[in-house]
Specification:
430 residues, alpha+beta, FAD/NAD(P)-binding domain, D-Amino Acid Oxidase, Chain A, domain 2, 2 domains, 8-stranded mixed sheet, globular, binds flavin-adenine dinucleotide
Length: 430
Amino acid sequence: MDDLPFQIEALSGLTAGSPSLSMPVMATSSTIDVLILGGGAAGLWLLDDLHRRGYSVALAEASSLGSGQTIWSQGIIHGGLKYALHGRAGGAAKAIRGMPLRWRRSLAGEHKPNLSRTRLRAEYCCIWAHTGIRSRLGLLGASLSLSVKPRKLQEEERPAPLKNWNGPVFRLGEQVIEPGSFLQDLADQHVPRILSVDGPQGIEITSASQLGRGDAPVEVQEVHLRCPGGKSLTIRPNCLVLAAGDGNSRIRNRLGLPVNHIQQRPLQMVMVRGKLPLINGHCIRHAHPWLTVTSTFDHADRTIWQVGGQVAEETANAPAIQAINRGREDLAIALPDVDFSEAEFATYRAIRAEGTASGKRPDRPTVFFDGNVVTAWPTKLALVPMLSDTIVEHLDPPAGHPEFEAPDQWPSATVAIPPWELESSWISGH
Ligand SMILES: Cc1cc2nc3c(=O)[nH]c(=O)nc-3n(C[C@H](O)[C@H](O)[C@H](O)COP(=O)(O)OP(=O)(O)OC[C@H]3O[C@@H](n4cnc5c(N)ncnc54)[C@H](O)[C@@H]3O)c2cc1C
């Protein structure tokens, strides 16, 4: 963004982009380097990164932190296996394979951001192949091309549900984090910089450019924030970062920026609840990732499985019962020794929001730069550090504004509630 003038103060009073008439009189104002909209994994990681680098930075969250994707995610810090099942480490595998080590250092508190308070669901993922020569070859190929190499588990090392699996089971150095505790960990370190706002309508953006015209770069001038209690604040950011996941397209629309290179992939994840053994890993079929299971606990200490993979994609728009039935069929094949008769089943729907220049499914973070607006999608939780690096590379150095602090009694945002705590209609496994 070196070519941007960033003369925000000088532009005040020019054309207001989106209507701000409904906003109350502004009580406070502040000029800062970067304002981030959206406090999921991407926004919070970037907030931490920029603050450490001396930027005056704030984050505004319209709902609860991580609602949308991060709190729904399975928390696997992927290392590229998915992209290397055919035995070659292509561009995508190369891009992601450094991530597990980077996260591991942060999770151990050895590297910034310090994530030593983030709970781990598992130190590693298992990977096993559904019978069939091709899928076993896929595993072999993966072991040749990954930097996080699968290691074959001895029978006594295997997790209980795979003890008698009729084939090799590998251990993969992909840690699994508890997304809620990750969000809380970062949020706790940045309380003065996180602002809860009154829904998307609590944010009004005014711009100095002619909105809706592709030939004029957008120059965001002011962002007016209103908190649930009615207080208001005007921020003049040198740069506005949109890290609002699925919300990015609505904000871009309001700014008159194109939304054609954005895609939404709906998913319907299956949840299983009960006295279940713990397992975290991927079952492979025909050299493709087929079923992914992660385990956690709910407030009553019941085991919760999140089940994703092909079932989540192929039943995305189907009734819940259809997704549950398909999930049960797949689980019976992938984990035949597990007894589900006492378990309960439910589903949740989520949308994966992604930027894509090609129309294909992206395999790395996507960042669009439009005037002084940056729009960011990490594509995967695991890729959030890479997203942050890309944005930092393009930013001007800090301008020397004083460190941002939320006005007194401005509410900070809370972390979103995981889906199994919100679901009330569970279906018995009988
Ligand atoms: C079911 C599922 C499972 C997944 N599993 C994995 C996995 O195991 N490993 C992995 O690497 N990736 C996984 N992913 C992908 C990963 O979760 C996402 O890539 C990542 O969490 C996206 O983070 P984000 O911060 O961009 O978006 P989000 O987490 O969606 O956060 C966006 C934030 O912006 C806020 N917001 C929205 N609109 C506005 C607005 N107008 N103003 C201000 N704030 C706003 C939202 O409330 C939210 O807090 C999974 C995704 C899904 C859906």
